[in-house]
Write a structure and sequence with these properties.
alpha/beta, four-stranded parallel beta sheet, 9 helices
Length: 221
């Protein structure tokens, strides 16, 4: 099985590598990596315009043409656009979809992001997943959102240590509230290691997505 990862930040290649090794190491898969930073840059500057959608789907189509069975779009902001790429045989999965599915079991969720542009796509995904599972008598959920101030400039400038500390500090300052915290961006995942014990679960997309991929590969092995 050929699995391709599309990144919109070069730093995310190294971020995902430990998860890939943990869950796909030794499995019958070929993994390739593709980075296009302009996709996120244009999405942040212009919004999710038709032009941005065409650029995203062009990148996905190029990867699909190289023989990928599964393409993981690791960027939550453009994930929906990637999944809607037409006329390809590859299965496209936005990295936060397995995380959104996992969030179904919690009645109250706090969605945290480092950049505001990620919130709308993430909330849209959560609502879609909830509506799809309404037939399973899911309980009513409380979904709140927050952007962690002053964090993103650190990541954008390459200071991942301060970025991680900012996110962890924000999480550690939460006194009470949600049953689960959902970290909207994959880049936020390392902050979990710096978080103190608390009464809520912290859901991250790299861990849950790679766990899902391992399950998919096992079914076809």
């Amino acid at each position: 099985m050929n699995i391709a990862f599309l990144y919109t930040l070069k730093a995310n290649e190294s971020l995902f590598q430990p998860y890939i090794e943990k869950y796909l190491g030794g499995m019958p898969v070929t993994v390739t990596h593709h980075t296009n930073e302009s996709l996120l840059q244009h999405a942040m500057e212009d919004g999710l315009t038709d032009q941005v959608a065409k650029a995203v789907q062009h990148s996905i189509s190029e990867i699909a043409a190289q023989g990928a069975d599964i393409i993981i779009c690791t960027c939550s902001t453009i994930g929906e656009l990637a999944e809607k790429t037409p006329d390809i045989s590859s299965k496209v999965i936005r990295v936060d979809r397995p995380m959104a599915e996992a969030a179904l079991q919690y009645e109250s969720i706090l969605v945290l992001a480092a950049i505001a542009s990620t919130l709308e796509p993430t909330i849209s995904l959560l609502q879609s997943v909830i509506q799809t599972n309404e037939a399973n008598h899911c309980p009513q959920r409380i979904i709140e959102t927050s952007v962690i101030p002053e964090a993103w400039p650190y990541y954008f400038s390459g200071n991942t240590e301060m970025y991680t500390r900012k996110i962890a500090g924000y999480i550690n300052s939460i006194q009470a509230g949600p049953r689960a915290i959902l970290l909207a961006q994959a880049s936020m995942a390392p902050a979990v290691e710096l978080c103190k014990e608390n009464q809520f679960e912290i859901l991250t997309s790299p861990e849950l997505c790679l766990r899902y991929l391992a399950q998919q590969v096992s079914q076809y092995a």
